Amino acid sequence: KLLIKHGKHIVNEQFLLNRLANATIDIYACVCVLSRCTQSLNEGLDSAHHEEQMTKVWCSEAYGRIQQNLDILKNPTSLQNFKTMVDISKGVCDKVEPVQGNPLGV
Fold it and tell me: Contact 39/55 with Cβ under 8 angstroms?
């Protein structure tokens, strides 16, 4: 949906791409972990049970991160925050220094 919505301008949506990339990395890592564990279990290795436990924990933790990253892509508050962060970044880049002054006036 992101690519359809933004088209070739998706490269300008770094906050969205970061979340999507993090979810993708976790999905890929889960596939790798599951593949290795499956092979250990199929071969009946002594470490298979231990690897199975590690795989269950890893995939469970990764699932939470994946859900969180993908949910943020649909959350109106997060999307508005991303737009605000873009405006903040533009202000800093335009001024080439912090935009805000020292609150103590020093």
Answer: no
Q: How far apart are CA 77 and CA 15, in angstroms?
A: 13
Residue pointed to by tokens 């873009």? 86
Report the pLDDT value the prediction gives residue 8, as an integer from 0 to 100: 65
Task: Please report the pLDDT score of residue 40 as a whole number.
Answer: 97
Amino acid at 30: C
The 10s digit of each residue's pLDDT in 37-60 is: 999 999 999 999 999 999 999 999
d(CA 14, CA 21): 10
3-class SS of residue 27: helix
pTM confidence score: 0.79
DSSP string, 25-89: HHHHHHHHHHHHHHHHHHHT-TTHHHHHHHHHHHHHHHHHHHHHHHHHTT-HHHHHHHHHHHHHH
